[in-house]
């Protein structure tokens, strides 16, 4: 399952703006156009521009809605394909709209002469557009990477002296700091996930980082909370650590490997 809340924060405004723009209204929402002078705006077909941006936002909204579906169905390629299409559509439209005098009104030879200065875009405006595109790309890449790392199962490596957890909020746990490794025949939801204090939890089963519960106090989770059993690592100093995978057999297999390494 995927973080509908995270996606919803972006999707809902996109959807509202796309509906507004598809009606040929809301040009003030379009970056770059809203900073033009009145005479420069007059050279553009505002209705066509609004509808084009509205269609773009609608496409981006649909693509973002595929992200939670991809994680719910555990289809990694669907997330990455939709993410790449999202970035391609956003960047491609930005380049298309800002080159070749797109959306300019055609000059009517029979209309009364009105002097309109169609100067090429200044370097400052080009720089502002470029910066806006770069920031947007970084923002969405950051969200994509965070969601991917947050939703995927942790990677566990067992070394001679430690257990290495590679995931969001991952760490090395040295055997000298472990008091006990146990397997609990319950899911993390049944044990008590608690409330997130500094970690990742999108509202679905995947939980990474620091959580606090009335039952266990402060704890560190690397779990798929609806899956059972759950590995519990009790440390001599520090919080208890819980680990589980989507595949229950994988959880059991990792537990046996941990226990064997710990005993030796």
Number of strands: 9
User: What order do the helices and strands follow?
Assistant: HHHHHEEEEHEEEEEH
Number of helical runs?
7
Please bin the fraction of helical residues: 40-55%
What general outline do the C-alpha atoms trace?
A: elongated
Strand content: 15-25%
Please state the structural category. Answer: alpha+beta
Largest sheet: 6 strands, mixed
Arithmetic mean pLDDT: 81
The largest beta-sheet arranges its strands as 4-8-9-7-6-5
Radius of gyration: 26 Å
The termini sit apart by: 38 Å
Number of domains: 2
Give the uncertain stretches in residue-range form: 111-116
How would you describe this structure to a colleague?
The chain has 264 residues and is an alpha+beta fold. The chain folds into two domains: 148 residues, no CATH class; 109 residues, no CATH class. The protein is built from seven helices and nine strands. A hairpin with a 4-residue loop joins strand 5 and strand 6. About 2% of the residues have low confidence.
List keywords for this structure.
3-stranded antiparallel β-sheet, 264 residues, 6-stranded mixed β-sheet, single chain, alpha+beta, 2 domains
Question: Which helices and strands appear, and what pairs or packs with what?
Answer:
Layout: H1 4-22, H2 38-41, H3 46-72, H4 76-97, H5 123-151, E1 155-158, E2 162-166, E3 171-174, E4 178-184, H6 188-191, E5 195-201, E6 206-213, E7 217-224, E8 230-235, E9 240-243, H7 248-263
Helix pairs in contact: 1-3, 3-4, 4-5
């Amino acid at each position: 399952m995927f973080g509908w809340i995270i996606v919803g924060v972006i999707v809902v405004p996109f959807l509202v703006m796309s509906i507004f723009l598809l009606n040929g209204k809301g040009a003030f929402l379009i970056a770059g156009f809203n900073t033009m002078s009145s005479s420069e705006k007059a050279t553009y077909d505002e209705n066509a521009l609004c509808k084009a941006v509205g269609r773009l936002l609608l496409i981006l909204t649909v693509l973002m809605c595929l992200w939670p579906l991809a994680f719910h169905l555990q289809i990694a390629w669907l997330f990455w394909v939709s993410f790449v299409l999202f970035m391609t559509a956003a960047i491609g439209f930005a380049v298309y709209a800002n080159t070749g005098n797109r959306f300019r009104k055609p000059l009517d030879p029979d209309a009364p002469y009105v002097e309109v200065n169609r100067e090429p875009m200044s370097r400052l405006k080009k720089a502002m557009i470029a910066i806006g595109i770069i920031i947007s790309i970084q923002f969405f890449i950051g969200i994509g990477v965070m969601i991917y790392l947050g939703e995927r199962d942790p990677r566990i490596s067992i070394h001679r002296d430690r257990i290495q957890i590679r995931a969001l909020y991952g760490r090395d746990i040295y055997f000298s700091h472990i008091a006990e490794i146990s397997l609990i025949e319950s899911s993390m939801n049944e044990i008590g996930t608690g409330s997130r204090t500094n970690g990742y939890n999108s509202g679905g089963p995947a939980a990474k980082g620091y959580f606090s519960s009335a039952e266990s106090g402060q704890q560190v989770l690397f779990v798929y909370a609806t899956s059972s059993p759950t590995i519990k690592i009790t440390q001599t100093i520090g919080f208890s650590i819980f680990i589980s995978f989507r595949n229950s057999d994988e959880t059991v297999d990792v537990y046996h490997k941990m226990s064997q390494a710990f005993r030796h």
